[in-house]
Amino acid sequence: MVPKIDKLVNVLSTADKDVANFQVKLYDEMTTIEGLTEDGMYDATTMMATKLDLIREFFTMPNHHRKRDLIMAPVGPRSGDAIFANVERVNAELFTLTYGATVRQLLTDLEEVEEVNKQLDQMGYNIGIRLIDEFLAKSNVTRCVDFRETAEVIAKVGFKMFLGVTATVSNWDADGTCCSIILEDNPLVDFVELPDTCRGLYYCNILSGVIRGALEMVSMKTEVTWIRDVLRGDDAYELQVKLLKQVPEEYPYKDDE
């Protein structure tokens, strides 16, 4: 029985990089629990019970402790439509008007349109670094093989899950590190018309920040900018997402420690 549990622990360690913390705790627990025999060996029953308890804890710990190996994956096993159908939702008009009131207040407080653009992006970034936890927990995605698949998941699952809209990915560069995400609909702009004094405003700049923040939490440094905006006279909403670098994983310990 014990060898099978050891094998399960080893499988967990390869299935999730952040399980390193779990392994360290397992080691600490196994060197401090009561259950030593007279010759200093652990009682097999105590070892088994302790490992089972720690494994159970691993599977019930908050998702953000295990997310770093879940870099975003192809759609599956749950699609954006399936997730959207089962999540709690707020009234669309209330959501739109609340966001509009937020933008209006920023314009009043900051006065400069460029400062409002920066603030909206920062707000989105702060949301994105937290929203990734919910996304990973509800979508059950696994690791993507490249940035192309990551972009597809953002468009097909992420936007559908949180905004109820479908987006498409196009305009890839030759290196596969830059693309456009085009929104077919945008609930944030219902009832919105920008005055001439706000023509430089990227009203939905919060979305670029959300994408940037979420991707940074899965080790992708990106630059997200608006290419087209219907509120500024264009024919579509288009975000350009450019991968700047893939940040290597860092761990607080070395294998030989």
TrEMBL record:
GO terms for biological process: Golgi vesicle transport. GO terms for cellular component: endoplasmic reticulum; Golgi apparatus; TRAPP complex. Gene3D superfamilies: Trafficking protein particle complex subunit 3. InterPro entries: Bet3, NO_sig/Golgi_transp_ligand-bd, TRAPP_component. Keywords: Endoplasmic reticulum, ER-Golgi transport, Golgi apparatus, Transport. It is found in: Endoplasmic reticulum; Golgi apparatus, cis-Golgi network. The keyword Endoplasmic reticulum applies. Its main location: endoplasmic reticulum. SUPFAM superfamilies: Ligand-binding domain in the NO signalling and Golgi transport. PANTHER family: TRAFFICKING PROTEIN PARTICLE COMPLEX SUBUNIT 3 (PTHR13048). Belongs to the TRAPP small subunits family. BET3 subfamily. This is Trafficking protein particle complex subunit. It comes from Citrus x changshan-huyou.
